[in-house]
Design a protein that fits this description.
Elements (H helix, E strand, L loop, with lengths): L9 H20 L5 H25 L12 H12 L18 E3 L5 E3 L4 H15 L6 H30 L4 H11 L1 H6 L6 H17 L4 H17 L4 H14 L4 H23 L6 H5 L9 H10 L5 H4 L4 H15 L7 H17 L16 H16 L5 H23 L4 H6 E2 L2 E2 L11 H15 L12
Antiparallel strand pairs: 1-2, 3-4
């Protein structure tokens, strides 16, 4: 049997950094420190090790799983660094196939119709190549985009672990690893510069600050900034963000104004970008592109597809998250009885609902050329605290423990298929003319997961690596 493909690339660099962190930890532990300092250091070290380890796995396939929707962010980042603007006019000969992802502003310039968050997230990684005058080759853009996506998603994982340590310590590590490798955070967000990686980092920071429950102006400012960042990365996040802000407004009324101030810079950036791209501060470029419509899918049909469709459903590709419903229900009962602290699991579920309802009614609720439920990626993050509460519940018998591990194991396997054996042939056959066919096909041989299993089989037999395709998604 052939080994899993592994090339000498950034993954090995991350492994070297892991060894460096371990060496630093040993040296620190040998010094004379107080008990509290040692405890804090061990906690911080665990986060650092987790982040480096997760990043290493995210980079281990040594490729960018590229799609059309993700490409303009890197070009816009170069333009912002070199020219101080977000238009991509100077790259028009190169990006001609991508023009369907742009809008022409009132000033005649071309802009990506996606929010600017992905471009801003890319700036720290693109700055050195641009300043060093490196030619923006496709290889360079692939490296920068993949590294940006993997780093931001790994940051979201680290922040999630820090959150769950406060909320459900006994289930924190298991739930965090399940999210890191058993959701589309692994198979999509970390593999290319979608909007999801950076936006989940913002949401994870917001959850951490809510879990800390500090009623200070500084904490509220940072919370507002985290929520604003999540929205500027992905506009549909506005709905779950409003739910989280409502919780702040109810629980910390005196600091809610500071949270609003923290979000203000991101609101101003959004207004500026909207004016450039559409001429109106309130009209998003993507809304202009779709002519403010395309919400014509029956709610129940779209919602059922997002949750249970064999080739898109959240609970099909990450079935362990079904247990989050149990965790949130238990917590809701505790809240009704006036028990417990910050009900983070219930909050996460409530924040997920409006996101699901919005996407379910959109024409392309299935997310175009995607793997699984990529279009509602943020929902998996918001549901993880409730899952952690289930894992942390006591007593947990052998049968329940076996169920949890089985669901997590299946989820890890499903998302590993896309990372190591990507194959867009299912999308090419089933996503046609802006619609999807066969997403509800119950024949196991015709599901997206089954097509990936066949790709794995071909590789095992002949060493044939499936080739990803580049085509529109959402």
């Amino acid at each position: 049997m052939k080994p899993i493909p592994w090339e000498v690339t950034l993954a090995e660099v991350m492994f070297a950094l892991l060894l460096l962190v371990l060496w630093a930890a040993v040296r620190w532990a040998m010094t004379d420190r107080g008990r509290e300092e040692r405890r804090l250091f061990r906690s911080d070290l665990a986060l650092a090790l987790l982040g480096v380890g997760v990043l290493t796995v995210y980079l281990s396939n040594s490729k960018r799983l590229i799609q059309m929707d993700t490409q303009l962010a890197t070009f816009a980042a170069i333009s912002l660094i070199e020219s101080g603007d977000l238009d991509v006019d100077e790259f028009r000969p190169v990006i001609d196939p991508l023009l369907v992802q742009t809008v022409k502003g009132p000033n005649g310039h071309l802009y990506s119709f996606y929010p600017p968050g992905s471009t801003l997230a890319c700036l720290p990684f693109m700055f050195v190549p641009v300043v060093a005058r490196m030619a923006p080759s496709l290889v360079l853009l692939d490296v920068v985009a993949k590294l940006t996506a993997a780093c931001w998603t790994a940051v979201a994982v680290m922040l999630l672990l820090a959150t769950l340590r406060r909320y459900a310590p006994a289930g924190a590590l298991v739930a965090t690893l399940a999210f890191a490798f058993g959701t589309v955070a692994f198979s999509s967000a970390s593999q290319d510069l979608w909007q999801h990686g950076p936006s989940m980092a913002g949401l994870a920071l917001a959850l951490l600050l809510i879990a800390r429950d500090r009623k200070t102006a500084g904490s509220a400012l940072l919370l507002g900034a985290a929520l604003g960042w999540a929205v500027i990365c992905r506009a549909p996040n506005l709905l779950p963000v409003l739910v989280l802000f409502l919780f702040v407004l109810v629980r910390r009324r005196r600091t809610a104004a500071w949270a609003a101030i923290g979000a203000l810079p991101f609101a101003l950036i959004t207004v500026w970008v909207n004016v450039l791209a559409t001429g109106s501060p309130l009209v998003f470029a993507q809304a202009k592109h779709y002519q403010m419509g395309n919400f014509d899918t029956p709610l129940l049909g779209g919602l059922g597809g997002l949750l249970f469709a064999p080739s898109r459903g959240l609970f099909v590709y990450s079935p362990f998250l079904l247990l989050a419903l149990i965790g949130a229900a238990r917590e809701a009962r505790s809240v009704a009885r006036g028990q417990g602290g910050v009900p983070l699991g219930a909050i996460g579920l409530v924040a997920t609902v409006p996101l699901l309802l919005l996407v379910a009614t959109w024409t392309e609720w299935f997310g175009g050329w995607s793997y699984g439920y990529r279009i509602i990626c943020e929902g998996s993050l918001l549901l993880t605290p409730a899952f952690a509460a289930v894992v942390a519940s006591r007593p947990m018998g052998l049968a329940r423990r076996a169920l949890v591990l089985t669901l997590i194991g299946f989820s890890l396997a499903v998302h590993s298929l896309q990372v190591y054996f990507p194959d867009d042939s299912w999308n090419a056959s089933h996503v046609v003319r802006g619609g999807v066919v066969g997403v509800w096909n119950l024949r196991p041989s015709d599901t997206q997961i089954a097509w990936h299993l066949r790709a794995l089989g071909r590789w095992l037999r002949a060493g044939e690596q499936p080739a990803g395709a580049t085509s529109p998604a959402d």
